[in-house]
Automatic annotation (TrEMBL):
It comes from Lachancea dasiensis. GO terms for cellular component: cytoplasm; nucleus. ATP binds at G109, A110, G111, K112, G113, T114, R225, H270. Keywords: ATP-binding, Cytoplasm, Kinase, Nucleotide-binding, Nucleus, Pyrimidine biosynthesis, Transferase. A ribonucleoside 5'-phosphate binds at R135, K157, I158, V159, G187, F188, P189, R190, Q194, R231, R242. This is Uridylate kinase. The gene is URA6. Gene3D superfamilies: P-loop containing nucleotide triphosphate hydrolases. It is found in: Cytoplasm; Nucleus. It catalyses: UMP + ATP = UDP + ADP. Its EC number is 2.7.4.14. GO terms for molecular function: AMP kinase activity; ATP binding; UMP kinase activity. Transmembrane segments: none annotated. SUPFAM superfamilies: P-loop containing nucleoside triphosphate hydrolases (SSF52540). Belongs to the adenylate kinase family. UMP-CMP kinase subfamily.
Length: 289
Protein backbone atom coordinates (compact mmCIF):
# COMPACT_ATOMS: atom_id res chain seq x y z
CA UNK A 1 0.00 0.00 0.00
CA UNK A 2 1.31 3.43 -0.93
CA UNK A 3 2.08 5.78 1.96
CA UNK A 4 -0.02 8.98 2.05
CA UNK A 5 3.14 11.01 1.47
CA UNK A 6 4.02 9.12 -1.70
CA UNK A 7 0.44 9.03 -2.87
CA UNK A 8 0.26 12.80 -2.79
CA UNK A 9 3.65 13.37 -4.44
CA UNK A 10 2.17 14.53 -7.72
CA UNK A 11 -0.75 16.44 -6.34
CA UNK A 12 0.53 18.27 -3.31
CA UNK A 13 2.39 21.12 -4.98
CA UNK A 14 -0.71 22.74 -6.48
CA UNK A 15 -2.42 22.54 -3.11
CA UNK A 16 0.69 24.02 -1.52
CA UNK A 17 0.57 27.02 -3.88
CA UNK A 18 -3.12 27.50 -3.23
CA UNK A 19 -2.50 27.28 0.49
CA UNK A 20 0.22 29.90 0.18
CA UNK A 21 -2.19 32.19 -1.71
CA UNK A 22 -4.96 31.86 0.87
CA UNK A 23 -2.48 32.20 3.75
CA UNK A 24 -1.13 35.43 2.31
CA UNK A 25 -4.71 36.74 1.95
CA UNK A 26 -5.42 35.85 5.57
CA UNK A 27 -2.22 37.58 6.63
CA UNK A 28 -3.07 40.69 4.61
CA UNK A 29 -6.56 40.74 6.09
CA UNK A 30 -5.07 40.53 9.59
CA UNK A 31 -2.67 43.40 8.83
CA UNK A 32 -5.40 45.62 7.34
CA UNK A 33 -7.62 45.05 10.32
CA UNK A 34 -4.93 45.86 12.85
CA UNK A 35 -3.34 48.77 10.95
CA UNK A 36 -5.75 51.50 12.14
CA UNK A 37 -5.44 50.44 15.76
CA UNK A 38 -9.22 50.07 16.16
CA UNK A 39 -11.16 46.86 16.70
CA UNK A 40 -12.36 47.01 13.04
CA UNK A 41 -12.78 49.31 10.03
CA UNK A 42 -15.97 51.22 9.12
CA UNK A 43 -18.49 49.30 6.96
CA UNK A 44 -17.56 51.15 3.71
CA UNK A 45 -13.87 50.59 4.43
CA UNK A 46 -14.60 46.91 5.20
CA UNK A 47 -16.43 46.57 1.85
CA UNK A 48 -13.39 47.91 -0.01
CA UNK A 49 -11.09 45.54 1.89
CA UNK A 50 -13.31 42.55 1.09
CA UNK A 51 -13.42 43.49 -2.62
CA UNK A 52 -9.63 43.82 -2.64
CA UNK A 53 -9.20 40.43 -0.92
CA UNK A 54 -11.63 38.79 -3.35
CA UNK A 55 -9.64 40.11 -6.33
CA UNK A 56 -6.39 38.98 -4.71
CA UNK A 57 -7.73 35.46 -4.07
CA UNK A 58 -8.86 35.02 -7.70
CA UNK A 59 -5.58 36.45 -9.00
CA UNK A 60 -3.48 34.20 -6.75
CA UNK A 61 -5.38 31.08 -7.74
CA UNK A 62 -4.94 31.84 -11.45
CA UNK A 63 -1.27 32.57 -10.85
CA UNK A 64 -0.72 29.35 -8.91
CA UNK A 65 -2.44 27.23 -11.57
CA UNK A 66 -0.47 28.75 -14.43
CA UNK A 67 2.72 28.43 -12.40
CA UNK A 68 1.96 24.71 -12.03
CA UNK A 69 1.80 24.28 -15.79
CA UNK A 70 5.58 24.56 -15.61
CA UNK A 71 5.87 22.07 -12.72
CA UNK A 72 7.61 18.71 -13.19
CA UNK A 73 4.63 16.60 -14.17
CA UNK A 74 2.59 18.99 -16.25
CA UNK A 75 5.72 20.15 -18.01
CA UNK A 76 6.45 16.80 -19.57
CA UNK A 77 2.90 15.53 -19.82
CA UNK A 78 0.55 16.40 -22.64
CA UNK A 79 -3.21 16.26 -22.37
CA UNK A 80 -4.87 13.24 -23.86
CA UNK A 81 -8.46 13.01 -24.99
CA UNK A 82 -8.45 9.21 -25.01
CA UNK A 83 -11.88 7.91 -24.04
CA UNK A 84 -10.62 4.48 -23.03
CA UNK A 85 -8.51 5.52 -20.10
CA UNK A 86 -9.83 5.16 -16.61
CA UNK A 87 -11.02 8.51 -15.34
CA UNK A 88 -10.70 8.06 -11.58
CA UNK A 89 -8.24 10.56 -10.12
CA UNK A 90 -7.22 7.99 -7.51
CA UNK A 91 -6.74 4.76 -9.47
CA UNK A 92 -4.37 3.86 -12.31
CA UNK A 93 -4.81 5.66 -15.63
CA UNK A 94 -5.15 2.35 -17.53
CA UNK A 95 -6.76 -0.96 -16.77
CA UNK A 96 -4.44 -4.00 -16.64
CA UNK A 97 -7.17 -5.87 -18.55
CA UNK A 98 -6.56 -3.49 -21.44
CA UNK A 99 -2.87 -2.59 -21.18
CA UNK A 100 -0.02 -5.05 -20.57
CA UNK A 101 3.20 -3.79 -19.06
CA UNK A 102 6.26 -5.96 -18.54
CA UNK A 103 9.00 -4.40 -16.43
CA UNK A 104 12.48 -5.31 -17.70
CA UNK A 105 15.11 -5.12 -14.99
CA UNK A 106 18.71 -6.22 -14.60
CA UNK A 107 22.16 -4.77 -14.12
CA UNK A 108 23.66 -2.29 -16.57
CA UNK A 109 24.80 -4.12 -19.68
CA UNK A 110 22.93 -7.35 -18.87
CA UNK A 111 21.35 -7.28 -22.34
CA UNK A 112 17.88 -5.85 -21.62
CA UNK A 113 17.74 -3.53 -24.62
CA UNK A 114 19.02 -6.25 -26.96
CA UNK A 115 16.27 -8.66 -25.91
CA UNK A 116 13.56 -5.98 -25.94
CA UNK A 117 14.47 -5.33 -29.58
CA UNK A 118 13.92 -9.04 -30.30
CA UNK A 119 10.48 -8.95 -28.67
CA UNK A 120 9.51 -5.82 -30.61
CA UNK A 121 10.55 -7.55 -33.86
CA UNK A 122 8.62 -10.75 -33.17
CA UNK A 123 5.81 -9.87 -30.77
CA UNK A 124 4.66 -6.32 -31.52
CA UNK A 125 5.58 -4.86 -28.17
CA UNK A 126 6.29 -1.17 -27.74
CA UNK A 127 9.74 -0.77 -26.20
CA UNK A 128 9.99 2.10 -23.74
CA UNK A 129 13.47 2.44 -22.28
CA UNK A 130 13.38 4.77 -19.27
CA UNK A 131 17.04 5.62 -19.89
CA UNK A 132 16.33 6.53 -23.53
CA UNK A 133 13.37 8.72 -22.51
CA UNK A 134 15.56 10.50 -19.97
CA UNK A 135 18.35 11.03 -22.50
CA UNK A 136 15.82 12.45 -24.97
CA UNK A 137 14.45 14.81 -22.30
CA UNK A 138 18.02 15.75 -21.38
CA UNK A 139 18.70 16.75 -24.97
CA UNK A 140 15.34 18.38 -25.62
CA UNK A 141 15.80 22.06 -26.33
CA UNK A 142 14.41 24.12 -23.52
CA UNK A 143 14.11 21.27 -21.03
CA UNK A 144 14.61 22.55 -17.53
CA UNK A 145 15.59 19.05 -16.42
CA UNK A 146 18.48 18.65 -18.87
CA UNK A 147 21.35 19.45 -16.52
CA UNK A 148 19.83 17.54 -13.64
CA UNK A 149 19.33 14.41 -15.78
CA UNK A 150 22.85 14.69 -17.24
CA UNK A 151 24.37 14.82 -13.77
CA UNK A 152 22.35 11.85 -12.46
CA UNK A 153 23.19 9.68 -15.47
CA UNK A 154 26.92 10.39 -15.30
CA UNK A 155 26.91 9.61 -11.57
CA UNK A 156 24.79 6.48 -12.03
CA UNK A 157 22.10 7.95 -9.76
CA UNK A 158 18.35 7.64 -10.09
CA UNK A 159 16.58 10.70 -11.48
CA UNK A 160 13.67 11.81 -9.24
CA UNK A 161 10.63 9.72 -10.02
CA UNK A 162 8.36 12.64 -10.95
CA UNK A 163 10.29 13.20 -14.18
CA UNK A 164 10.68 9.55 -15.20
CA UNK A 165 7.13 8.48 -14.35
CA UNK A 166 5.70 11.46 -16.24
CA UNK A 167 7.81 10.69 -19.31
CA UNK A 168 6.67 7.06 -19.26
CA UNK A 169 3.05 8.03 -18.75
CA UNK A 170 3.20 10.39 -21.69
CA UNK A 171 4.84 7.75 -23.91
CA UNK A 172 2.27 5.11 -22.94
CA UNK A 173 -0.60 7.52 -23.59
CA UNK A 174 0.73 8.48 -27.00
CA UNK A 175 1.16 4.84 -28.03
CA UNK A 176 -2.17 3.82 -26.53
CA UNK A 177 -3.89 6.50 -28.57
CA UNK A 178 -2.34 4.84 -31.62
CA UNK A 179 -3.88 1.50 -30.59
CA UNK A 180 -0.79 0.00 -28.89
CA UNK A 181 -1.47 -1.95 -25.73
CA UNK A 182 1.64 -4.05 -24.97
CA UNK A 183 4.63 -2.34 -23.42
CA UNK A 184 8.13 -3.37 -22.39
CA UNK A 185 9.18 -0.85 -19.78
CA UNK A 186 12.95 -1.30 -19.84
CA UNK A 187 15.29 -0.23 -17.03
CA UNK A 188 12.39 0.74 -14.79
CA UNK A 189 11.37 0.78 -11.95
CA UNK A 190 14.88 1.33 -10.59
CA UNK A 191 13.72 2.38 -7.14
CA UNK A 192 10.84 1.39 -4.84
CA UNK A 193 9.08 4.75 -5.04
CA UNK A 194 8.93 4.44 -8.84
CA UNK A 195 7.49 0.94 -8.63
CA UNK A 196 4.71 1.99 -6.27
CA UNK A 197 3.85 5.20 -8.10
CA UNK A 198 3.81 3.60 -11.55
CA UNK A 199 1.53 0.76 -10.49
CA UNK A 200 -0.79 3.06 -8.59
CA UNK A 201 -1.00 5.87 -11.13
CA UNK A 202 -0.42 4.25 -14.53
CA UNK A 203 -1.11 0.51 -14.57
CA UNK A 204 -0.13 -2.55 -12.52
CA UNK A 205 2.57 -4.59 -14.30
CA UNK A 206 1.94 -8.11 -15.59
CA UNK A 207 5.34 -9.32 -14.39
CA UNK A 208 9.04 -8.44 -14.26
CA UNK A 209 11.62 -9.96 -16.54
CA UNK A 210 14.82 -9.98 -14.51
CA UNK A 211 18.12 -10.28 -16.36
CA UNK A 212 20.59 -11.97 -14.07
CA UNK A 213 24.21 -11.45 -15.11
CA UNK A 214 27.63 -11.61 -13.41
CA UNK A 215 29.21 -8.17 -12.94
CA UNK A 216 32.37 -9.07 -14.81
CA UNK A 217 30.33 -10.04 -17.87
CA UNK A 218 28.35 -6.79 -17.72
CA UNK A 219 31.55 -4.76 -17.27
CA UNK A 220 33.12 -6.36 -20.34
CA UNK A 221 30.01 -5.75 -22.44
CA UNK A 222 29.69 -2.12 -21.34
CA UNK A 223 33.35 -1.28 -21.91
CA UNK A 224 33.01 -2.74 -25.40
CA UNK A 225 29.75 -0.85 -26.00
CA UNK A 226 31.42 2.34 -24.72
CA UNK A 227 33.82 2.32 -27.69
CA UNK A 228 30.94 3.36 -29.95
CA UNK A 229 27.87 4.23 -27.86
CA UNK A 230 28.80 7.83 -27.08
CA UNK A 231 27.11 7.37 -23.69
CA UNK A 232 28.55 9.49 -20.88
CA UNK A 233 28.14 6.58 -18.45
CA UNK A 234 29.79 3.79 -20.47
CA UNK A 235 33.17 4.29 -18.78
CA UNK A 236 34.67 2.29 -15.92
CA UNK A 237 34.16 5.03 -13.32
CA UNK A 238 30.45 5.52 -14.10
CA UNK A 239 29.88 1.79 -14.63
CA UNK A 240 31.06 1.04 -11.07
CA UNK A 241 28.68 3.66 -9.69
CA UNK A 242 25.83 2.17 -11.73
CA UNK A 243 26.60 -1.30 -10.35
CA UNK A 244 26.47 0.05 -6.79
CA UNK A 245 23.14 1.83 -7.42
CA UNK A 246 21.75 -1.31 -8.98
CA UNK A 247 22.58 -3.47 -5.94
CA UNK A 248 21.53 -0.92 -3.32
CA UNK A 249 18.48 0.66 -4.94
CA UNK A 250 17.17 -1.53 -7.74
CA UNK A 251 17.56 -5.04 -6.32
CA UNK A 252 15.00 -4.23 -3.57
CA UNK A 253 12.48 -3.63 -6.39
CA UNK A 254 13.21 -7.07 -7.87
CA UNK A 255 12.85 -8.61 -4.41
CA UNK A 256 9.57 -6.75 -3.86
CA UNK A 257 8.03 -8.17 -7.05
CA UNK A 258 9.58 -11.57 -6.30
CA UNK A 259 7.68 -11.57 -3.01
CA UNK A 260 4.50 -11.17 -5.11
CA UNK A 261 5.59 -14.06 -7.33
CA UNK A 262 5.80 -11.66 -10.28
CA UNK A 263 9.40 -12.19 -11.43
CA UNK A 264 10.82 -14.43 -14.15
CA UNK A 265 14.61 -14.63 -14.00
CA UNK A 266 16.59 -14.98 -17.20
CA UNK A 267 20.19 -16.12 -17.07
CA UNK A 268 22.19 -13.77 -19.28
CA UNK A 269 25.69 -15.16 -19.51
CA UNK A 270 24.83 -16.95 -22.77
CA UNK A 271 24.54 -16.07 -26.42
CA UNK A 272 21.88 -13.59 -27.51
CA UNK A 273 19.86 -16.45 -29.05
CA UNK A 274 20.02 -18.59 -25.90
CA UNK A 275 18.90 -15.67 -23.76
CA UNK A 276 16.09 -14.94 -26.19
CA UNK A 277 14.79 -18.51 -25.90
CA UNK A 278 14.35 -17.93 -22.17
CA UNK A 279 12.72 -14.53 -22.76
CA UNK A 280 10.22 -15.94 -25.28
CA UNK A 281 9.31 -18.78 -22.91
CA UNK A 282 8.68 -16.30 -20.07
CA UNK A 283 6.43 -14.08 -22.20
CA UNK A 284 4.50 -17.08 -23.50
CA UNK A 285 4.01 -18.40 -19.99
CA UNK A 286 2.87 -15.10 -18.47
CA UNK A 287 1.08 -13.34 -21.33
CA UNK A 288 0.23 -16.10 -23.73
CA UNK A 289 2.03 -15.10 -26.93
N1 LIG B 1 23.92 -12.31 -24.73
C1 LIG B 1 24.85 -11.44 -25.10
N2 LIG B 1 26.10 -11.85 -25.35
C2 LIG B 1 27.06 -10.96 -25.71
N3 LIG B 1 26.85 -9.63 -25.83
C3 LIG B 1 25.63 -9.16 -25.57
C4 LIG B 1 24.58 -10.03 -25.18
N4 LIG B 1 23.47 -9.29 -24.99
C5 LIG B 1 23.81 -8.01 -25.23
N5 LIG B 1 25.11 -7.93 -25.59
C6 LIG B 1 25.87 -6.71 -25.87
O1 LIG B 1 26.17 -6.12 -24.61
C7 LIG B 1 26.00 -4.71 -24.65
C8 LIG B 1 24.93 -4.32 -23.64
O2 LIG B 1 23.68 -4.82 -24.08
P1 LIG B 1 22.37 -3.98 -23.91
O3 LIG B 1 22.60 -2.59 -24.42
O4 LIG B 1 21.26 -4.76 -24.50
O5 LIG B 1 22.30 -3.98 -22.31
P2 LIG B 1 21.31 -3.22 -21.34
O6 LIG B 1 21.01 -4.15 -20.25
O7 LIG B 1 20.15 -2.67 -22.09
O8 LIG B 1 22.25 -2.06 -20.85
P3 LIG B 1 21.89 -0.67 -20.15
O9 LIG B 1 21.06 -0.96 -18.98
O10 LIG B 1 23.21 -0.12 -19.79
O11 LIG B 1 21.21 0.16 -21.18
C9 LIG B 1 25.63 -4.37 -26.08
O12 LIG B 1 26.78 -3.95 -26.76
C10 LIG B 1 25.09 -5.69 -26.66
O13 LIG B 1 25.33 -5.81 -28.04
O1 LIG C 1 14.14 4.84 -14.21
C1 LIG C 1 15.28 5.27 -14.48
C2 LIG C 1 16.04 4.76 -15.53
C3 LIG C 1 17.28 5.28 -15.78
N1 LIG C 1 17.77 6.28 -15.02
C4 LIG C 1 19.09 6.88 -15.28
O2 LIG C 1 19.51 6.61 -16.60
C5 LIG C 1 20.74 5.90 -16.58
C6 LIG C 1 20.86 5.03 -17.79
O3 LIG C 1 19.82 4.06 -17.79
P1 LIG C 1 19.89 2.82 -18.82
O4 LIG C 1 18.71 1.96 -18.47
O5 LIG C 1 21.19 2.15 -18.59
O6 LIG C 1 19.79 3.39 -20.19
C7 LIG C 1 20.75 5.21 -15.24
O7 LIG C 1 22.04 4.84 -14.79
C8 LIG C 1 20.15 6.30 -14.35
O8 LIG C 1 21.09 7.31 -14.08
C9 LIG C 1 17.03 6.77 -13.98
O9 LIG C 1 17.47 7.69 -13.25
N2 LIG C 1 15.79 6.28 -13.72
Amino acid sequence: MLSPVLRSTFRCSINASRLKASNSCALLSKRLYSSNGSSGPSSSHRGKILALLGALAVGSTIASISYQKNGPVEYVEKDSSSQSQQTSSQGPAFSPKDVSVIFVLGGPGAGKGTQCANLVRDHQFVHLSAGDLLRAEQNREGSKYGDMIRHHIKEGKIVPQEVTVALLKQAIRENYDLGKKRFLVDGFPRKMDQALTFEEQIVPSKFTLFFDCPEKVMLKRLVERGKTSGRSDDNVESIKKRFATFIETSMPVVNYFESQDKVVTVSCDHTVEQVYDQVKAAVKDKIGN
